[in-house]
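Q: We require from you a single protein entry containing the residue sequence and its fold in token form, and nothing else.
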Amino acid sequence: METELKKQFISISYRHLLILIIGLSLAACGDQNQHKGHNNNATATSKDSSAHDHSKHDHGMLDIATLGENIIAPSIKATITEDSVSGWNLHLELTDFSFTPEKVGLTADANAANEGHAHLYIDGFKFSRIYSNWYHVKKLTPGYHKLEITLNANDHSPLGYKGEAISATLELHQKQ
């Protein structure tokens, strides 16, 4: 009986150790200098940048400038505020763009220049789809987090205009 308990304990300990190593490895992948000079405010505003330079490689972006001469590029501005109960409230201010959740997942034939949905990336990983101007983000792990919101076509292709991704980037600090 005692030997069996020792085996179970060792098995559980190894699993916890493996999870810890994976978590530390993922945390170490971040840029060690990215947080210098940031304050600890609970709000953040959008920047005119994306998670990385999309012009250097192809993500299957739908460049809406190729769809016609009189296309007006949509724009996105994002703000995030700490929720009074838990987590964060993300607000998207869009111009020349309509959310069309009923068309999400259709083929590229259904793509239009100024409609679709958004994707939310947190720390480089896709977190969720967004179908309206407001989105609640659950409480994150303590520390700094980078959020990128991209506008996407109905077939999930990121939208761009003249080679530039249409997106907004935020950084927030999740306190304990």
Residues 9-14, 16-59 have pLDDT under 50 and may be disordered.
